[in-house]
Specification:
This protein has 103 residues and is α+β, with helices and mostly antiparallel strands. The chain is built from three helices and four strands, in the order E-H-E-E-H-H-E. It has one domain: Alpha-Beta Plaits (2-Layer Sandwich), CATH 3.30.70. Strands 2-3-1-4 form a four-stranded antiparallel beta sheet. The longest helix has 15 residues.
């Protein structure tokens, strides 16, 4: 089995909406964690910039995220819960492990 793919999204939440965003994310994480190919996730809040978060999601494959999750009916629920909190809308990138470096 190959190493999981890491999805990285920097989330800039509209100032003053942190509590609402975090509450919505607590609900939304149940959606993503039930998807095929999902491995695990973490959401971290920036100390220096309190309206900035980093979302890290590990997937079995790139397609599990880009096709499976984004093409699912559950993604519409995710979008409704979270997308209105972002300004600007986040760029999502995917990373793979570097051979010989621990993950």
């Amino acid at each position: 089995m190959s190493a999981p793919i890491l999805e990285v999204a920097i989330l800039n939440v509209i100032p003053g909406q942190n509590a609402e965003f975090e509450a919505a994310f607590r609900v939304a994480q149940g959606i993503i964690s039930g998807m095929g190919g999902y491995v695990r996730h973490t959401l971290q809040r920036c100390i220096e910039r309190p309206s900035e978060y980093v979302l890290l999601v590990w997937w079995d494959s790139l397609e599990a995220h880009t096709v499976g999750f984004r093409g699912s009916p559950e993604y519409a629920q995710w979008r409704t819960l979270l997308h209105h909190f972002y300004d600007p809308f986040p760029t999502v990138l995917h990373y793979g492990a570097v051979e010989g470096i621990p993950t």
